Amino acid sequence: MRASPSPLPATAVLMTSALLLSACGTPERTTGNGPEKTRLNVAGLAVVDDAPLYIAAAKGLFKKEGLDVHVTTLTQSTQAIPGLLRGDIDIDLGGNYVSFLQAAAKGAIKLRILADGFHCAPNVVPVLTMPGSRLRRPADLKGRKIAVNIPNNVQSMLVDAVLRSRGVDVSTIRYVQVPFPDMAAALQKGQVDAASAVQPFASAQRRTLHARKVVDSCTGPTKHVPLSGAFATEEFVRKNPKTVAAFQRAYRAAARMAANRALVVRTLPTYTKINASAAKGIAFGTYPTTLSAAPIQRVADLMRADHLLTSRLEVAPMIVNG
After folding, report:
1. Integer Cα distance of 229 and 318 in angstroms
2. Considering the entire predicted model, what is its pTM?
3. What are the residues whose beta carbons fall under 8 Å from the beta carbon of 234, sequence distance 6 or more?
4. Residue 57 burial by CB count (10 A; 0-12/13-18/19+): exposed, middle or buried?
């Protein structure tokens, strides 16, 4: 049984809630060879995916490119879509590809991809259950309730792809919407049989609940699949090509730095609730330093197979390489 897609929630922020309001004045713009727009409102998430964004801010990489970047942390990446449409948000980091490609395919928003943010790796998106659960192997998930942050989205797509490859009838699975911070409680109370959690929440559940992995969502057909990226509207990219190029240079530099796991571990406590000790035990994916259509097209093709798209979506026209 599938949950029906939920409408996009209104924009809500956890941190720096006054930043968008402070940006209501005329944005500072330059002429010549500098960025067209120097002040940027960028949305991000308090998840491992977005480490390069916070590294770039902390290391002054944006300032080096002439950009004054103000970061707003959201609870779900889909919350950025209304802000992108209104112009309150210039660029969204950590936008999960499924939601954003769906929105683009439906014509709800004309999007461009500025960076490939984070790729799947073992234990990055595990399906976890309580230590005493009878769920032991992928086939045991048939007919069960699995917590996901957003129904009919990237988590369910990954789980479906892996289980389908193991011969499991995924139409019997019920995906239940539970915010990442609430998944541990939902498991403890028996409200769900298992939870598909991203980092750092997955590691926290394994540490505090001794939660056990039933299946890894980043294996087989989903090995190294892209999970999230950086998005802007077509209009913003068209009006601000130098700004976009400057942002991309800074972000790529930060992504290269993020290959240093120790730096990511030190950065995580600055924008998530995880402490330095717990950060050391987190599973990490990869932070790509290049942007191309082929890896992201894998996501669109998996979406089509999982009926999250009604027809094939070509990703190449959405790619921006500044």
Report:
1. 12
2. 0.84
3. 110, 111, 112
4. buried
